[in-house]
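Page 37, continued from 36.
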């Protein structure tokens, strides 16, 4: 019997791929689903190797390239790196790889949009950053903020245990409150008027952060700013989906599917039904 070849969908009808180290990137996907309701999305959570925040730059680059190859095979038309640690370590290498393929896939990260908006919002030119250890150590935000606001001072605070607490479903108890307060203290002392939430998990504790930093401090999260950048890129590249019906979204994860569904639905605030378990070489080894 002759093999039937199924034609690939036209570029505009292919899905947008989003990946993160866990469920935190669902805060980005949530904004993308609102901003681009007609687009289809694939989300991959690399929960088997979570957290990324304490990984080396070499590991983060390797993980990101593995994930990009898988999502490229799923015919993604655009890759959104929703993980701040992966963006800080691997964005340039990912762009080089994805643009060199026959599909010529663009890559968008979270650092540039957040830095640009923080530079626009800050009045006293003192900007705070809460992020994982790997993201702070990379210096990516220092470079990005410096490009948009050379006169600004960036006060960076590494928060090694905050994302894991949130990923676990964080019951809001005294331990969480004290952890958040400890990370906010140096930002208050520095007198920042704008704070970048440099991890996709952190918007889940935004009300607590706002209370401790003060109502006059602007919190900049990646979701909304990134969604606007993706929408502009799609229009500019003529890749926006012409079909105006409601798009679909589906999920892949490298770890426990049931745990992803239980915590992920709280982050996304939309139903998460079918989740496909996928295996990546380094994740299997881990």
């Amino acid at each position: 019997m002759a093999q039937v070849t199924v034609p690939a969908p036209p570029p505009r009808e292919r899905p947008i791929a989003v990946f993160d180290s866990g469920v935190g990137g669902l805060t980005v996907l949530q904004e993308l689903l609102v901003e681009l309701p007609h687009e289809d999305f694939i989300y991959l959570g690399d929960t088997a190797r979570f957290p990324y925040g304490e990984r080396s730059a070499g590991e983060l680059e390797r993980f990101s390239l593995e994930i990009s190859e898988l999502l490229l095979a799923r015919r993604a038309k655009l890759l959104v790196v929703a993980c701040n640690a992966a963006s800080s370590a691997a964005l340039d290498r990912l762009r080089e790889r994805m643009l060199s393929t026959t599909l010529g896939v663009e890559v968008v990260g979270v650092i540039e949009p957040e830095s640009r908006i923080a530079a626009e919002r800050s009045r006293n030119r003192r900007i705070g950053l809460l992020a994982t250890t790997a993201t702070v150590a990379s210096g990516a935000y220092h470079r990005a903020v410096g490009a948009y606001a050379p006169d600004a001072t960036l006060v960076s605070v590494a928060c090694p245990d905050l994302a894991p607490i949130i990923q676990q479903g964080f019951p809001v108890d005294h331990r969480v409150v004290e952890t958040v307060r400890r990370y906010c203290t140096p930002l208050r002392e520095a007198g920042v008027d704008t704070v970048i939430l440099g991890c996709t998990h952190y918007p889940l504790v935004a009300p607590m952060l706002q209370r401790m930093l003060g109502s006059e401090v602007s919190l900049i999260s990646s979701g909304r700013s990134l969604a606007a950048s993706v929408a502009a890129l799609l229009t500019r590249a003529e890749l926006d989906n012409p079909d105006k019906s409601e798009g679909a979204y589906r999920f892949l994860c490298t770890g426990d599917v049931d745990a992803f569904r239980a915590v992920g639905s709280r982050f996304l605030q939309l139903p998460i039904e079918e989740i496909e378990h996928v295996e990546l070489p380094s994740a299997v080894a881990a």
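Residues 58 and 89 are 8 Å apart (CA to CA). Flag for discussion at group meeting. Residues 112-221 form a domain with the Rossmann fold fold (CATH 3.40.50.1860).
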